[in-house]
Design goal:
β1 and β2 form a beta hairpin. Strands 1-2 form a two-stranded antiparallel sheet. The relative contact order is 0.23. By secondary structure, it is mainly beta. It has 1 helix and 2 strands. The radius of gyration is 17 Å and the shape is flat.
Length: 52
């Protein structure tokens, strides 16, 4: 039988996370690559402003 896992992340001191998906086009082949990561919500503006 499968066990049910209960997450306890709904406490008040938990950090809110956001999934960030960035697209980058290769100059050599023209293909698109996707980079996916989970970051804190407060860091989104910093990450997007520092992209190159």
């Amino acid at each position: 039988m499968a066990k049910k896992v209960v997450a306890t992340l709904s406490k008040g001191d938990a950090v809110k996370l956001t999934k960030l998906i960035q697209v980058k086009k290769s100059a050599k082949t023209g293909a698109y690559t996707f980079r996916s990561r989970i970051v804190p919500s407060e860091a989104i503006k910093e990450i997007l402003s520092s992209r190159t």
